[in-house]
């Protein structure tokens, strides 16, 4: 897109934020984040407001929150100013940010392409410099994918480490809280508010998941692999010992069963307004067989045990974040489904094993940002952020 047609800051703001949560909120002028502003994905409760979850029926009928989600209170208590609530894929069921009810947030780094979802508005606002950081949720890649698409940093925290109270549940055995920022220093400052001062992390033992770099489209894999190898001395490993399909076949029934358990009744209420993509997703969730769930549960534990053994307390796995460039804004639902399945092969690793992952801007291909990711052991957020800080700007690396 040429400069004459580039979106303005007002255009980006209009689509990144939702009208029902634009009132700024500040609890104190003192604190370690007093100089920072942040935004909150419209799945988090803010006392006195409705959370629409990206759906017009929920905006109309949902209860006004009586309490603010604990994960929002933490930065507020540290002095940060919340500037508004951000757009999301409908009920967090999306990887692209394509919401037909509230609009598609703009990807400031590639305006003709989607920003990624479901933390779409949060990523758009951060990438445009409208706020210093933004809270989101990550179930199957909802922070990591928009971070990659928008050329920013995104942190998925260890499952269960941060409270999900007051946050819409989509798939409760996967849902995590995390945040996005333009630099790892801001990620670290926010992390210290949640987790306390970080102890000096152990030097990382890098594990390059060589087979993971065969999943992306050729141009993506070829651009990322030399950058991954330049990060530091790394042992090349096979991540998908059981095969990629084994991982996906474990993820799908568990995540879909969670979705049906939490939102199936709501989504199938007569007269419910749903987008085509979400309607199809909820209908698919209703078809998951109990025996498929029962089979997937021990598989998940076996995969988790293998990765925990592999990581120890100092291992860091290097993988691509997404398999391809962001789809164009007018991509049909069929193209979204095909894209989602391939990128899920990468994002399901941390999701299934409940591990933290940081998405880092790495390069660009055809003018679009492309991210690299680091997966660590449980509660290793400080180590992952420290590595990101030490690496500096990967997009400035040049190779012959």
UniProtKB/TrEMBL annotation:
- Coiled coil regions in record: none
* Organism from which the protein derives: Kaistia hirudinis
Asked if the record carries the keyword Hydrolase, the reply is yes
**Cited PROSITE patterns:** AMIDASES (PS00571)
Q: Which UniProt keywords apply?
A: Hydrolase
Family matches, as SUPFAM superfamilies? Amidase signature (AS) enzymes (SSF75304)
EC id:
3.5.1.4
Q: What Gene3D superfamilies has UniProt attached to this entry?
A: Amidase signature (AS) domain
Name of the protein this chain belongs to: Amidase
Q: Which domain of life is it from?
A: Bacteria
UniProt GO MF annotations: amidase activity
Q: What class of enzyme is it?
A: hydrolase
- Which Pfam families does the UniProt entry name for this protein? Amidase
Q: Which residues form the Amidase domain?
A: 28-199, 271-384
């Amino acid at each position: 897109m040429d400069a004459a047609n580039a979106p303005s800051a007002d255009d980006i703001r209009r689509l990144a934020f939702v009208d029902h949560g634009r009132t700024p909120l500040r609890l104190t002028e003192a604190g370690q984040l007093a100089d920072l502003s942040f935004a909150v994905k419209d799945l988090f409760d803010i006392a006195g407001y409705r959370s629409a979850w990206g759906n017009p029926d929920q905006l109309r009928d949902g209860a006004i929150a009586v309490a603010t989600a604990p994960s929002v209170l933490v930065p507020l208590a540290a002095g940060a100013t919340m500037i508004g609530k951000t757009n999301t894929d409908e009920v967090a069921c999306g990887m692209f940010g394509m919401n037909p009810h509230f609009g598609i947030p703009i990807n400031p780094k590639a305006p003709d392409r989607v920003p990624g979802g479901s933390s779409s508005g949060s990523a758009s606002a951060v990438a445009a410099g409208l706020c210093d950081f933004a809270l989101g949720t990550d179930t199957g890649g909802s922070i990591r994918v928009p971070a990659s698409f928008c050329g920013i940093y995104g942190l998925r925290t260890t499952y269960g480490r941060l409270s999900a109270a007051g946050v819409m549940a989509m798939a409760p055995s996967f849902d995590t809280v995390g945040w996005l920022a333009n630099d790892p220093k801001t990620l670290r400052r926010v992390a210290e508010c949640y987790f306390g001062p970080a102890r000096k992390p152990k030097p990382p033992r890098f594990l390059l998941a060589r087979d993971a770099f065969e999943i992306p489209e050729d141009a993506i894999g070829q651009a990322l692999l030399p950058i991954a190898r330049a990060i530091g001395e790394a042992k090349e490993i096979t991540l998908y010992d059981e095969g990629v399909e084994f991982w996906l076949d474990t993820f799908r029934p568990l995540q879909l069963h969670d979705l049906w358990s939490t939102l199936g009744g709501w989504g199938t209420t007569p007269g419910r307004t749903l987008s085509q993509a979400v309607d199809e997703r909820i209908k698919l969730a209703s078809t998951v067989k109990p025996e498929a769930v029962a089979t997937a549960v021990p598989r998940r534990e076996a995969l988790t045990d293998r990765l925990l053994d592999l990581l120890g307390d100092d291992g860091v796995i290097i993988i691509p974040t997404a398999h391809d460039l962001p789809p164009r804004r007018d991509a049909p639902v069929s193209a979204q489904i095909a894209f989602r399945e391939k990128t899920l092969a990468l994002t399901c690793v941390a999701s299934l094993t409940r591990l933290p992952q940081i998405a880092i801007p790495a390069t660009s291909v055809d003018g679009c940002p492309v991210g690299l990711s680091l997966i660590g052991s449980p509660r290793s957020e400080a180590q992952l952020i420290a590595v990101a800080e030490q690496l500096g700007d990967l997009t400035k690396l040049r190779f012959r």
